[in-house]
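In this notebook, the sequence line spells out the residues, with the fold written below as integer tokens. This is how one looks.
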Amino acid sequence: MLGNRPFRQWILAVLVVLTTTTGQAQQYFFGHPVIRNYKPEEFKGGIQSWGMVQDDRELLYIANNFGLLEFDGATWSLYSPKSGTKVRSVYVGEDGKVYVGSQADFGYFQPDKQGVLQYFSLADSLPQKYRNFDEVWRIYEQGGRIYFFTFKNIYSYAPGKKVQVLVPDTPLDFSFQVNREIYSLMWGKGLALLENNALHLLPGGNFFADKQIASILPFDKNQLLIFTIKDGVYLYDGHAVAPFQLSQEVVGNGLIINQALLLKDGNFALATQNKGLVLMDNRGRLLLNTTLREGLLDNTIHTLYQDTQDNLWLAMNNGISMVELSSPFSRLDGTMGLSGTGYAALQKGNNLYLGTNSGLFVSDVSSPKKSFAPVPNGTGQVYHLSQIWNQVMMGHHNGPFLVKEGQATQLYPGAGAWEFVPLPNQPGKVVMGTYKGISLLSADEKGLTFLKNLPGLEESSRVLEFDKDGELWMAHGYKGLFRITLDQKKEEITSVKFYNSKHGLPADHLVNMEKIGNELIFPAMYGVYRFDKAKDRFVLDKKYSSLFAPDEHVIEMEEDVQGNIYFISNQRVGKITFDKFGKPTLEDRLFNNLREQLNDDLSFIQVLDINNVLFGAKEGFIHYNAAKNKRMAPFHTRLAKFYTISNESDSLLLSGRLLDKSSGLELPFALNSLRFVYAASFYEKPEKTQFQYLLKNFDTAWSEWTTKTEKEYTNLPEGTYVFQVRARNIYGTISEAKSFTFVVKPPFYRSTLAYVVYTILGMLLLGAAFYQVDNRFKNEKRRILLDKERKLGQKEIEIRHITNQSEQEIDRLRNEKFQAELDHKNRELTYSTIHLINKNELLSSVKLELQSILNNGGRTPSQEELKKIIRNIDQNITSEIDWKQFELHFNHVHGDFIHRLQDQFPNLTPQEIKLSTYLRLNLTTKDIAQLLNISVRGVEISRYRLRKRLCLDRSDNLTDFMLKF
């Protein structure tokens, strides 16, 4: 059991706890912090920088030899005072102005109408006798006034008022502000306090009369910690001065302090003249010393500043550096004497062994100077480090090695050694995986001894583990898994069974093996699997597989003593933790920055103890301090500049604070091609910060994430737009979206005034057109009416003509019909008349015959009877019934002739009326005589009488008169 992993981890945890309790300083940084350097060529400024400060927008301002540097996380800008002198100090006032002090000048920067910082000198308003001073090294604000400190005078400025001059009795050295109090060192007198616009020597302050003070910092409620440049550090309680003891590691040889800074975690950072950056705790013990060798640009640091995200900025003699003090990650690389890619690690006591492709290295972690030295005979590819029987074993390309007494000794020459695994319940035996199979070693307190190779498996055996049943498993990354059964003595292989995709695994290759919770799990090409012994197959482990993406391949997993699991996959690096109910939580945001730095050959994780984890990197190792919680401070995205684009050049519209405050900016249509420049106030790996933008009323959705810090839009149509931009840092944290509203006004021909003019003109044109149309319509209407009237007249004529023709035709047809009817009636009358005539003729003949009979005296009926017959015939001849029938038809045919004749000539006798009707029928005199039963002579006489009745002339024809009547 001495060799199993949980026990080793427990031992390591105890050792680390003991180490941390006896020396907190040793655990501040395990390796070197991540440093980001900015060379003068990058920020285009002078090599020397001095004061530093951030404004409320988290923009960084730096006093530089070439002027005032501004850094927004993406872009450096340089602003020079009008004199072009070196800027030595900088301060952002509560009014938002950036106050600067330079050589023989001081003043402030404030934005112009475009938001570009412009310099305004305050020193130019001074009387000539106060104008002669050298440099302004300090700027402070107190009681609504800004104080500019030179070595000669103090200048006090209240915004909107004249500059006041405070002239001390003696020359001054550097000044300091602590807890809103301003202190200054008076040469030859000591430390003084500024009160009521005058410097007053403090009790005990004369102790510093001949000492240069670098910084004054609060130590506790009652004491100040005073750092001198080269005369040590002291505690001051307002009355007396006492030395503050620094460890020898801090003091070193000739420590020169340029500035000290109280960090947010309570430790102190020292900017030195010759030793780079020094961190110490409140007991004066060294925590970290970072110099040019560890990655700084220079060993001379002028000024320190800790930003809102706890990064430490260094203004140096040759460039600017940022140290990620807040990061839980640190580097173990070439800056510590380590070379090559990290493959193996092991901590034994205070010694930390690291194996790379270059060899084995060791460092004493208890030493303040954490550096690595190569282990003799350890050169070459190292694969694995194990501690067995208190011995350090190394798996090496040349075979197994024992590390003892500061050097590596090869156990025996042979094939490369991958890994050492103690046999369960047999602490004296160790199984070793080699290039050619498995070997058996014996282990004791003296070391390891090769026993023999185990035939039966000739595969390269890099990953070996025993399951809880005592069976040995070997994972081959390109073939599958081997289940190896040993004999009872664990000295021979009795059987080997091979498993691949035919046994439940998703693929034959990329199968790994990990021991988590004393059980074997098998991360495959995708998904995490367990072996079901009853089914002799691999089944998906839902507990772990559910934590990863369906296509995610887990490469490496390592468990700490609390059951937390660190992992590396093909997509990310992270940590799995479990709550008290066993519910897992995966955290990967904090590790986002690691993936591209890690070893992509044989990924490696080593848990040294509960708080310290090593990841194999392309260059050495990355150390993760689990006890150092990274504060995910919110950061901001801001619009830096707003340009209009043209063919010739881009023109700046707004920038800086004015752009932050501006909203609803109206732009003429000619400026409808725009460029936005933006940045995020996140300074860790700013080149990895990504941005996403959206132009409302133009874009339909947020853009894809991009590292570009600007966006152009061309030929925007008129309208109101809202440009939004947000950032995502390396930890996946997304800032709030920054919005900017602007209006693109329509072109003059589509402006409101234009539309009013268009409306008026349109109305006038419409009116004119309407008038024209109306006039044309009226004329046309008149013409149409006239034409219509003409046509109607013609139509009326035509209609009248047609009507006449129709009427004539109708009359003709009616006449024809009437004539036909008349003819018919006439025929009927004629027939009736003929009938009557025939009847009368018949009767007349009968009458004549009867008369003849009577006259002849023949044998005939009696005379009376004959007379009677004659009378009846006479009655029939003169029957009124026939006449009435005739009269009815005659009137119908001849237009009521009889009635009209009677009306006009009422004196006519019935005999004369009958004569008139017969004349109308144009009957002959003989026929008329027959009808009237008179003689022809009687007819003539009746005609004569009728003429008299009708009052006709002799010349008038009676028949014609009757026909026309």
About this structure: Confidence is low (pLDDT under 50) at residues 1-26.
